[in-house]
Amino acid sequence: MDAVIEVKDLVKEYIIVKKESGLRGSVKSLLFPKKTKFNGVNGISFSIAPGEIVGYIGPNGAGKSTTIKMLTGILHPTAGSIQVCGISPQADRKAVVRKLGVVFGQRTQLYWDLRLGESFELLRRIYQIDQQSYDNNLAILTEVLKLQDFINTPVRQLSLGQRMRGDIAAAMLHSPSILFLDEPTIGLDADAKHAIRNFIKEINRTRSVTVILTTHDLDDVEQLCSRIIVVNNGKIVEDGPIDSIIHKLTPHRMLVVELQEPCDDLTTPHAEIIKQEGLRIWYQFEKERISASELIAALSQKLPIQDISVKEPNVEDAIRVVYKTTATV
Amino acid sequence: MLQAYWYITKMKLLVNLTYRFEVFTSVATNLILMLASVFLWQTAYKGGSGSVEALSLQDLTTYTILSITISTIFVCDVQNTIYSKIREGQIVTDFYRPIPLLACYLAEDIGEMFSSLLNRALPLIVFASLFFGIPWPSSFQNFLLFLPSCVLSYAILWLLSALIGLVAFWVMELGNMGNVKDAIVRVLSGSIVPLWFFPESVQTVSKFLPFQYTYQTPLGIYIGNTNVIDALSSMAVQAVWVGILYLILTAGWARTKKKTLIQGG
Hints:
CATH superfamily of the largest domain in chain A: P-loop containing nucleotide triphosphate hydrolases
Oligomer: heterodimer
Shape of chain B: globular
Number of helices of chain A: 11
Structural class of chain B: mainly alpha
Number of helices of chain B: 11
Number of strands of chain B: 0
Largest sheet of chain B: none
Number of domains of chain B: 1
Strand order of the largest sheet of chain A: 5-6-7-3-8-9
């Protein structure tokens, strides 16, 4: 099937004016600004198939939001091409945004002074949604996102979690085929996060909406995304299924053993001791070479073991490795 | 699409009607301004020097009352809307809707205009009438000409404001530019002192600027200082200015969109 989003060699160049300190510096930079060019996005290519949930992640300032803004047609790329549903967002922004739902976690598209339902009514008119599909959509969204308690509350009085749910509903009213979520769970409590993740899974399953998620919350990524694209310094550093990326970046696992009494010889040929605190020992082992159960069996033959736990590397560890190794490209 | 604009206007109107305190302060400040101006003119005319024969005191009082009243109706928030939305990065949310931004802002301003008509202009006129008598137009015909002229005035003012808003896309520190423009408009539009009192040279220069066509033109028509032919020809000039500013705005807007820069990661 054809890709819904096709990005080729995308570059976005920013011009930064360096300001020098002090009065003299201010005057100088006012008269002769020192301009330096900087590539916020530097040659990014990827394609996304319909129905995928893709995590687009990277440290602050990696170029995530810049990419999203170019995909939605808000920013114009310096070079490269973008196709969203076969249309260039730069050439025909209005046609593209009709197919998109966009949620920026730190901003709201709802009208501050209006009640939530009135904001929806306005969107119905803006997107020219016919009454029947609007009613249908709203009924479904109300049920899944539990909007009924606050649909008549002015937006400024909503809690962050409520507002976020309102924003997501607003982005879905016109049945977009692609949903961009920029940090949708930022600052939310566990309950609200859960509701939002469920909702994303639900619309992906029932309506096969393609979802692109940028976030710093790696739990979101772990629970939702089948694929992640990691960017750093404006370049893609990893792109693939989440499991294989974790595996590739952090091949190690950790076995934490608590002993009943001190022992002299703690070493084992299968694993490496990386930390010891009293009766607790941390063994690091490669999951390719030995399984946890084998290691436990080997250890329990020579050591009086009280308690044991295995630590899986998680996305967070993997991502930290990526960020670190690609920090100064 | 039109439905959407109408909904924005309607909602803005309804929301604004609930802001009571702001209305009270606005009416109070404008009333003070009105009283001060009229008393000032009365004192000036008492001096009895023949130099101000261009207008009678009654005409000038009407002019002043009307000027302050229509200034509360001519709502041009677009420059501030754009400026603050850019500063907060909020403008992105308006960009990913399939609807022209500026038209939405116009719809908001028009909504506010309707609400101001009810809760600002109306009380002002009532109070003014109590103090100085009802400010009647010079004739019914002049009143009929005054209305379309006001619409053209508003179009000029709004386009100027939108142009200032556009500058915010290019210069992040818009700062006081809006205030500077407002001050220029206030003086050169004749909204405080009619330009007829200004030196000949200023009047000549002013003819080639858009400002005097925003307040002086409709107010001059209202008090009957301009005959029908002059009124129609100055309305033609107004229309030309609307056309010119509209073209500048569309061209500028197209360029701005290409170069958009939005603050915040």
